[in-house]
Amino acid sequence: MLPEPASHPKVKRFINRLLNPVLFKLFLLYKLPLAFVARLKMAELSPERAKVSIPYGWLTQNPFKSTYFAALSMAAEMSTGVLGLMALETAGAPVSFLVVGLKADFTKKATDVTTFTCQNGPLFFDAVAKTLSTGEPVSVEALSVGTNKAGEEVARFTITWSMKRKKS
């Protein structure tokens, strides 16, 4: 049985590192340089949810004067993936973690900062516990909803992640 995520010292340390703007930028520069260049920001992070924002600007634009869908996808994926990475902090054993599916719906032109929110943190912690106990792969379908400054929905992504305990 894994400890409660909110009280796990590795989870607390992970949250503190990613909410620190300087450490977050270093994380992006080292692990996700394109996200660094696109200026993604961690707006909120807890074991339950994550919020990641991406600005509209020259680096993220498309020819139609809105944020390029791939840039939106990157922010949406990060809002889900960071919850999975947080859950892996509690694993105590190696677990593989990768995207195996993506579905996107675009509802409004993204012409300013878009913030993606994923509230599926508990699903990732449950998936880690399940794959550790069974050794079988576990899929997590995580929903990330992007909104503009006015709170209007811009896009909705469902990203499917696979987790599987690695053989030692």
Structure commentary:
This protein has 168 residues and is an alpha+beta fold. 37% of the residues lie in helices and 30% in strands. Strands 1-2-4-5-6-3 form a six-stranded antiparallel beta sheet. β5 (138-147) and β6 (153-165) form a beta hairpin. α4 (69-88) crosses α5 (121-134). It is globular and about 50 Å long. 38% of the residues are buried. The model has no long low-confidence stretch (mean pLDDT 93).
Low-confidence stretches: none
Read across the widest sheet, the strand sequence of neighbours is 1-2-4-5-6-3
Helix content: 25-40%
Identify the quaternary structure here: single chain
Compute the separation of the termini in Å.
20 Å
User: What is the percentage of strand-forming residues?
Assistant: 25-35%
What number is the mean pLDDT? 93
Name of the CATH architecture? Roll
Classified by CATH, the class is Alpha Beta
Helix count, per DSSP? 5
What is the string of SSEs from the N terminus onward?
A: HHHEEHEEHEE
The CATH superfamily is identified as: Hotdog Thioesterase
